[in-house]
Structure formats: C-alpha cells, structure tokens
Fold:
Amino acid sequence: MKTGPLAPRGSIFPFNRGERRIPLEIPVVIDGHHAKRGVESTFTENVSAKGARVVSVRSWKKGEQLTFVLRTGEFRSSARVAYCQPLRGDGYAIGVEFLEPQGRWVVESPKSA
Structure:
C-alpha cells in the first residue's frame, strides 16, 4: 500500500495535511460542545501553525465549532473540528483548525515568498 504524499485518499493517512505537526503538550481550554456545556481544561498532543491535536473527554462532531484558548491567555481562536478519534481507554483525540487566531501561538506560519 502506498503511503506519504502520493498515497490515495482514505489510505493509511486519511488527513491531507500540508504542514508538519510538532509533538508538544500544552495546557489549553476548549469550549463550545454541542451537547455538554462548559469549558474543558485539557492539553494538546501535537501542534502546527494552523491547528492542534487535543485530548478531550467528549466526543465532538466533525465541523463543530469551538473556542480554543491557551491557559496562559496568550493565544485564543475560534476553531473547527477536523476529526474526532476515540483513544484507547477513555477520551478522544480531536484535530482542531484555527479559524480566527489572536495572540501569540507556539508555532509561527511560514512566510510566503
């Protein structure tokens, strides 16, 4: 089976991501779940300039919008759920894409030439 950038959609890597993820645990707060109201204090598993993979105790729907905030308060963004995957044991991993970032994020976007 092909893998990597030439792999067909739906193969081993079902998410077509143009930027590298950096493994980094950062304390964050997420809010906006459709059914379970209230903020959730959690952490990232990895990050990129345009989003993060976050651990959650809640199952989220693809496309659902949420608020993503660093616990330090230095960064916040509305975000969209790109995917939600069950983790072994309890919890879910959600991919979030930043929509309206404000403040200083831990990874800078590469400058366009």
Summary: Residues 46 and 107 are 11 Å apart (CA to CA).
